[in-house]
Structures are given as structure tokens and as C-alpha cells.
Amino acid sequence: MPCLTRRATLLALALSTAFVLPGLASAAEVTVFAASSLKTALDAIAADWETATGNTVVISYDSSAKLAKQIQEGAPADLFISASKQWMDTLADGKLIKDESRKTILGNTLILVAADKAAASVKIAKGFDLAGLVGDSKLAMGLVESVPAGQYGKEALTNLGIWDAVAPSVAQADNVRAALKLVDTGEAAYGIVYASDAVSDDKVAVVGTFPEDSHTPIVYPAAVVASSKVPQAQAFLDDLSSDASGAIFAAQGFIVLK
Length: 258
Fold this sequence. Notes:
D-Maltodextrin-Binding Protein, domain 2; six-stranded mixed sheet; alpha/beta; five-stranded mixed sheet
């Protein structure tokens, strides 16, 4: 859907709501805690929604683990979008999300990127000599015990039988975009990130894709935070599953789930 058509549709919806539910028509600020890998796509979707509805979306990006812990500590968020089921389950177990609002909206692919744009493609398989490929440089990853991209990456490397060999070369970052930055700047020769991250950065080269069966499926669950008093949070969450938002997510390398 073209951008103008999308905005016209959202505006029509906002106007119809104003006549039917006056109490919900006033502009609101929706605070979103979102996994850092969502930034490029979510910024674009939020900007369209703001223009069409008059509401404001304030987005805090970081690792899903860090954001979930902030919500546990009482941080004022209306909507949480995680890059893993684990951290959404943690909040659900603590009754910190509205269970009826929870939905899985996206998937992603785990890839290997290189700082050298001319780097050759590689086949990632059992016993792949990643340590030899990295050599004296570094392999950038999100924190392997808490950041979803790092967790998926370690799981994949372990299942492929190469984690122990490459572990000494791993440079861990606070979130997946920070790991990508290490490759972008040449501080690490290679990195393990999501396909959507590579779309957002034309300075790195995609050299390989991890087999789907080497790691847990990468999914993005989203839910309204239990303490939220902002009705528009649900409206923004619903918009993330629209065809127009799906087109933006797909263009940024995400797998759109229905």
C-alpha cells in the first residue's frame, strides 16, 4: 500500500473513532519498549501512525532482556515487543502483560555478516571452520546469555559443533545493533545478526545464513503492558499487524506472521 493511501486509511479510522468513542479521541503518548533489531521498520511505522492519528509514539530500543527487566522494575511502558518468546514469557509469568493482547507478529533469520564487502560467501554447516575464517580478528555477537540474537547465535554454533572453537574470538555487545556496529566499523571481521539488521546497513556483506534447524525459531511477540492506562497502545499494536505495516517489515527483512 502506498504511503499516502496508508495514511489516509489510518486517518479515516481515527476520525470514525472520534465520533463513536469521544473518550478515546484525544491524543495520547504511547511508550513502546522494543527490541533493537526493530528500529528501522518500527520508526517508519510509528511516524505514519503519528501523522494519521495525532498520537505520539515514544520508542525505547535495547535488548529484549534489558527492556523486560526494566518493566519488571516498574519502568513506565505501554507496549513491549520482544525478539524472543523467553522474555515475553518471563513478563507473562509475573502477570506484567495483558495476556489477551499478546500476539506473535514477526519472524527473522540468523545470518553471518562480514566487514569486508568483498568477502566470499560461505556455506554454514556442521563443523564449519568459523574460527579459521575469523582468524586473529573478532566475531561480534549480542550477549550470549541474555540478548536474543546472542542466544540464538550461541545455540546455532553449539548445534553445529563449533562454539568451543570460536568462543575465544567472540566480542559480545549489549544488543544486536551494537554487534552489527562492531562489524560496520571494522572492529570485528564477522558478526552474527538478523537478516533485518543487514538490510539496514549497506557497509557490511551478508556471507551466510544459519540453517533453520540449528536454532530455536526467531519470533517477535508483542503485548500491552499490564500497568498501561493508555487505550491507544492496543490500537498501535493492532496497526503493527496491518497489511501496510507488514509491507514495511517485509521490506526490512522480517518474516511477517499472520
